[in-house]
From TrEMBL:
Taxonomic classification: Eukaryota, Viridiplantae, Streptophyta, Embryophyta, Tracheophyta
Record organism: Brassica carinata (Ethiopian mustard)
Reaction(s) catalysed (UniProt annotation): 2 a phenolic donor + H2O2 = 2 a phenolic radical donor + 2 H2O
Protein name according to UniProt: Peroxidase
Keyword list, A-Z: Calcium, Disulfide bond, Heme, Hydrogen peroxide, Iron, Metal-binding, Oxidoreductase, Peroxidase, Secreted, Signal
Note on cofactor: Binds 1 heme b (iron(II)-protoporphyrin IX) group per subunit. Binds 2 calcium ions per subunit.
Length: 325
């Protein structure tokens, strides 16, 4: 049997370098800032709680901001970057223009407080993930561990968001929405659970009034009349909006799922969840079992918070969340 030749010194060097590189890549942990910024959680919680008390729609705004940041290309805070004369950023993409300012403001306030306590240490993407979880708990939702150690993206382009058709629209067919979630590793059940974020917050009239005006099936007749009345001045005032959940608009619970079979869903996508046989069983499940919904929502939110994250040298820690260093 032929004797194997030993590795040459140069080959051994590159092998060791490869092994070191693979083991040196930072991993997300729940205690990532325990030494570098020990008051991280307290600072985020105190800052956003104050904001929520002043503006009760902050929780819904931050959770929506979290989804619009994470779902297209991963949780990298690219949604926060402002446009420049040379680049139109994601936040100015048509699909993101309706994102409430309270969400951006909450993250900026937390970042400012953290920079004073721990300069150039905490990423904006970690702030979004932690703030979304903390505000969810504030309005009655479930708690789940948030893993930390993300880096912020150095790129934010509205053109990439539009070209890739990367975010589900309220008017999208259910088959398309399911494909968008499945392509990111999310099941139909997880998609329906994440739709429960509509338990809080509001939607602008432009998102649904056309369907109401056409007398589309699915709406409770009295609810449709109320929506037309609420949005009657919409052409002159495009900021008009309606709560997603008319029963408990400021409380995170399972009323959203109870409302849909009664024709009290607001968006076309809400009605689609009940009319599609692939999603309807989960609507029924969450309507009758809030504990199950809370558990599934928490798991899906944690899974989304880990999607496409950047760590180590693949990203940066921005000094300001709205600008690349």
């Amino acid at each position: 049997m032929a004797e194997q030749s030993p590795l040459k010194p140069l080959s051994l060097f590159f092998l060791l370098l490869t092994l070191l590189a693979s083991t040196a890549e930072p991993r997300l942990t729940t205690d990532f800032y325990s030494k570098s910024c020990p008051r991280f959680h307290d600072i985020v919680r105190d800052t956003i709680s104050t904001k929520q008390i002043t503006n009760p729609t902050t929780a819904a705004a931050v959770i929506r901001l979290f989804f619009h940041d994470c779902f297209p290309n991963g949780c990298d805070a690219s949604i926060l970057i402002s446009s420049t004369a040379f680049n139109t950023a994601e936040r100015d993409s048509p699909i993101n223009l309706s994102l409430p300012g309270d969400g951006f403001d909450a993250v900026v306030r937390a970042k400012t407080a953290l920079e004073l306590a721990c300069p150039n240490t905490v990423s904006c993407s970690d702030i979004i993930s932690a703030a979304a979880r903390d505000l969810l708990v504030t309005v009655g939702g479930p708690h789940y561990p948030v893993f930390l150690g993300r880096r912020d993206s150095r790129v934010s382009k509205a053109s990439l968001l539009a070209a890739g058709d990367l975010l589900p629209l309220p008017s999208s067919p259910m088959s398309k929405t399911i494909r968008q979630f499945e392509s990111r590793g999310f099941s139909v059940r997880e998609m329906v659970a994440l739709s429960g974020a509509h338990s809080i917050g509001f939607s602008h009239c432009k998102e649904f009034i056309g369907r109401v005006a056409r007398n589309s099936t699915g709406y409770n007749p009295r609810f449709a009349v109320a929506l037309r009345r609420a949005c009657s001045n919409y052409p002159r005032d495009p900021t008009l909006s309606v709560f997603n959940d008319i029963s408990t608009p400021n409380k995170f619970d399972n009323m959203y799922y109870q409302n849909i079979p009664k024709g009290l869903g607001l968006l076309e996508s809400d009605h689609g969840l009940y009319s599609d046989p692939r999603t309807r069983p989960f609507v029924d499940l969450y309507a009758r079992d809030q504990d199950r919904f809370f558990k599934d929502f928490a798991k899906a939110m944690q899974k989304l918070s880990l999607y496409g994250v950047q760590t180590g040298r693949r990203g940066e820690i921005r000094r300001r969340c709205d600008a690349i260093n």
